[in-house]
Backbone:
């Protein structure tokens, strides 16, 4: 039986993608830290759609987390043909207000685990006649964002790595898609402790996790290379591309770099 493995599927965009895939009768493997949320989502999707769903609670900052996920799949004979690297979070504030451990933990989840899972699951994905890797980056990946500097840089990494990997895999059955959401109403802002100006700006333009998830899953099945969610976010990324970096960075600092 084939499965879609989704990291960060206990809540937010990851949960919404799980719900969309379940409605398409796709078997699912859910991964995040919060066992209670994963278990209740798995149970409700199994009941509602008659699909197979299992879950694995793991903190992706733990050393060896990616290997544990692969071992869990191997032991249970779960064959993955869709890998969705969605788990991620931000740290908002000046760079030196966080410890080196806090910084590298975020890099571990946003970047290293994503790379490790691509490396660990690629041999199996390549065996499938058609397979997908969907990596979730961010519109923050298009520019430096003072106040979210390392987060934005981690998402730039995701975007460039994913595009390169897509090219490398063009003669295989594996399609790599990168989706760049802008502000989305999830627990992200709370966990990142986003500045109040950024939250206020978000109130007017944020998308729902369901809308973002729908765009992401459609882009994945269409085999698209890179998709920015929503018109306003596309416009924003275009302006960032057109404007001198000093201007876009000063504007971002005014929104994200409070204090
Ligand atoms: N919301 C936005 O405005 C926005 C904008 C652009 C990009 N994104 C990106 O979209 C993706 C999904 O974020 P979201 O907005 O849906 O945020 P969210 O509601 O906070 O969900 C984040 C998911 O990642 C999981 N996660 C976080 N840290 C983890 C860890 N150490 N180990 C295992 N799982 C972990 C969380 O599960 P547990 O808490 O259960 O571990 C949760 O399922 C992220 O990559 C984020 O960077 C979000």
Residues:
């Amino acid at each position: 039986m084939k499965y879609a493995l989704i990291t960060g599927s206990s809540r937010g965009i990851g949960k919404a993608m799980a719900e969309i895939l379940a409605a398409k009768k796709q078997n699912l493997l859910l991964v995040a830290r919060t066992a209670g949320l994963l278990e209740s989502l798995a149970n409700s999707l199994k009941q509602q759609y008659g699909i197979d769903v299992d879950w694995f609670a793991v903190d992706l900052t733990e050393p060896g987390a990616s290997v544990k996920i692969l071992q869990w799949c191997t032991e249970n004979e779960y064959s993955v043909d869709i890998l969705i690297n969605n788990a991620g979070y931000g740290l908002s504030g000046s760079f030196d207000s966080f410890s080196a451990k806090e910084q590298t933990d975020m890099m571990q989840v946003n970047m290293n685990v994503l790379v490790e899972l691509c490396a660990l699951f690629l041999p199996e994905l390549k065996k499938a006649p058609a397979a997908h890797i969907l990596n979730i980056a961010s519109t923050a990946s298009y520019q430096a964002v003072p106040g979210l500097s390392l987060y934005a840089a981690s998402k730039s990494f995701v975007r460039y790595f994913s595009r390169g990997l897509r090219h490398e895999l063009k003669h295989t059955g594996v399609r790599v898609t990168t989706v760049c959401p802008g502000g989305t109403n999830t627990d992200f802002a709370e966990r990142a402790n986003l500045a109040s100006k950024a939250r206020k700006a978000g109130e007017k333009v944020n998308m729902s996790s369901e809308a973002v998830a729908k765009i992401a899953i459609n882009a994945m099945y269409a085999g698209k290379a890179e998709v920015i969610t929503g018109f306003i976010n596309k416009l924003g990324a275009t302006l960032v591309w057109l404007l001198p970096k000093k201007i876009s960075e000063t504007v971002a600092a005014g929104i994200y770099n409070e204090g």
Observations:
- DSSP finds ten helices and nine strands in the chain.
